[in-house]
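Same chain as my last thread, 66 residues:
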Amino acid sequence: MYNNQMRILRIAKNMTLEELSEKTGLSAGYLCHLEKGSRRNPSMNVMEIIAIGLGESVADVFFTDR
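reply #2:
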């Protein structure tokens, strides 16, 4: 089940949205919408890019309750 943990992981790593944006090449605005849930169901490619940017697995970022 989809369960976005982006914000929790990003904050735990003391990373700003702008820093994650730089690491992923995705806009900070898009990342913010994903974190808030106003944008849902990113593509698998986008999930992989975000997971790499956070140094986590796709499962840990998008499908795991922490």
